[in-house]
Batch of 3 targets.
Target 1
Amino acid sequence: MPPLYLALRSFECLLATSLLIQTLEFLRIRSVQNTDGLWRWDVQRGDIAHASATVRKAFDWLFSEQIHKAHLLLRLAAAASLYIGSSIVSSTLLFLSTIAILIRWRGAFNGGSDFMTIIALTGLMIAHWGQFVVSPVLAWQAGLGYVCLQTMTSYFISGAIKLFSREWRNGIALPYFLDGGIYGPLSAGSVFRKRSIAIACSWGFMLWECSVPIVFLGPMVATVYCAIALVFHLLVFAFFGLNRFVWAWVVSFPALIYWAGWW
């Protein structure tokens, strides 16, 4: 199987899984967005108070209960279709759907995972719309290349910010950060409260994130790096319950591995 075809099919299938999980979660919490819910639209509508009447009416229609439900069901079908193969229609629909959902949630529902999803869908859009300008092979390479570059940047900047922070370098930030996990503050005897362990873990994370350019040493190195990344994101899920983060970044791994081999 050609490397590019394997990469793009892996990318599409992982993206389908990520989007299906997200959409099912949105369907599950529809009750908090209904007219009597905590996140009802008539409250958030104030964010577009200065928009034109046409824009306000359009969003009122899009975020009404029945239309919002229909939108999510359509999104679910479009996401599932990626298992068979993406198209210019499905990629554009999913991109616009994600933008609409981000507007509904005032910019982000789950932070970085939302923006990584946008990056993946933008790569998919580049791959399909780019075929009007260049060959399909070059368009797909450009789409995966965009995802690869953005993913590397996300890791590198995250590591660099920690590296410039004294609290991360001396290990103080890690237990403070973990105290905000879903199971409450760390216990007094937690291993992560030991200064030596906290420093070792902090430097391990920082050096690993900042070393992301090593993926270009070859596909085997990139595969190992992605395996470590998967463990990292699973740890984030274990401590903070952020399941979307696992899938949002795993989607990008085929792009990283493909471009490591191409390079």
Target 2
Amino acid sequence: MQGRFITFEGMDGSGKTTQMRLLAERLRREGREVLETVEPGGTEIGSQIRRILLDSANQELRPTAELLLYFASRAQNVEQCIQPALSAGKIVLCDRFTDSTLAYQGYGRGLGEETVLTLDRIACRGLAPDLTLLVDVNVDTALGRAHTRNASLFSSEETRMDEQSLEFHRKVREAYLALARHYSSRFRIINGHGSPEQVAQRVWEAVAQHV
């Protein structure tokens, strides 16, 4: 039985990572086999690439190099983990996928949609999510949560993207909402405001018919 590929998207601080974890827990309670993964990351090689991408010390990382590193991590994850799990009939939950790259690098960095999609065809070999959950909050809320999270950690180097300009983050949110309209058959916009439990119920209502 072919598995199901569900991605979580949204700005840092939207709550998407928490919601993915809560959904995985609920699916496992119902007896489903679930693989949780993350972009960038998901594999040992991907985790090494993630450290380069998100390290706040790497402010000189150029947009094109950034884009290529994201897809290098993704290609490894697709071939090593995601595709085998789907072939085994598992539900794969992924924290970010190519939609993130379209929003952040394609639009936010100005590299363009076609450049991103060309690399996607090479790295992902036609793999696309069955369902994408966009956990949406306003920019001020997202950045406030992200900065609070970063400040609460004893040591965190994964702050480079959080430290981009307010205008950049506004572009990213606009891009996400445009993607949700364009790919309306697979996108579901989840209101990310409220308690984690309230948001989790909205997530489940969007997911239940697909699993």
Target 3
Amino acid sequence: MGAGLQVVFGAGPVGASTALHLLDLGHRVRMVSRSGRRPVAFVDKLRSEKESRLELLSGDAANPAELRKASAGASHIYHCLNLSYEDWARGLPPIHAALVSAALEADAVLAVAENLYMYSRGQGRIHEDAIQEPHTRKGALQKALHQKLVEAGASRGLRWTAVRASDFYGPGAIQQSVFGTVRFLEPLYAGRKPGILGDPDRMHSYTYVADYGRALATAAQSPAALGKAWIVPNDRTTSTRELAQLFFEAAGRGRGISPIPRPVLALAGIFVPVIRELGEMLYQKEEDYLVDGSSFKATFGFEPTRLEDGVRTTLAWYLQLHQGSGLIASLQGR
């Protein structure tokens, strides 16, 4: 049985994957989200022994008082929260600051799920020691937020670790993933070509979201990981088109993909703020984007999930999610 209460803020795919791995390790887990509902990544009811160690709590991380209350008794706190792109500049800094304060008050380790936006463009492979000179607003914000962790560790004694991942796919991914339900799986099972941003033939490292959660939990529980940022190891790097083909083959369906031209995206961005905010990050999908997590792999003996296995599990999750919706019956009738 794991010791200490693990408080996971965010019930999206990263938070859910982190919580599931912590439950596997025997910990007590409190998941905090605005709704307090069961994560969509949790399709199956957990075994009763795990259910007895899981608490779902409704709380607003933007409210410092609620955040401190939700963190009470924690030995480890996990920052898996995210906001829509257009809300980043306004919403992320106060949430980040409140989580740092809550961790210090609880004398808890703070483990932060980060992305790779702070790294400079055009470096070949991205690794922990790669140059950080972001040319985008979002990259500059991510770098500034990480620096707050470093400063809190140096001046206030915060015990922290940060784990960074490339674009992810897997159970629970809805809108935020190239291979999520909205952009890929729903069109796939509706007989349409999924729309793909950027150049689908550029090489791109994709992270299986369960590996992201597993790496974050591993780092938080490992004294050797504290005070450092790490990158999640991935399986082999492929093109987006090749990964889409793995989905088609595993699903037994699919008519190819449909690249979305930049002008179409720009037009849609006039009316939809979150689409407008995508523009400055498109370079990641228009150029080769190679991510190196070998340091974490070597330090913690971490083996990433094979793409084929991750794809199969993602499809099984999606189909199970739609049991009783008519989707399964319609597929069986074809």
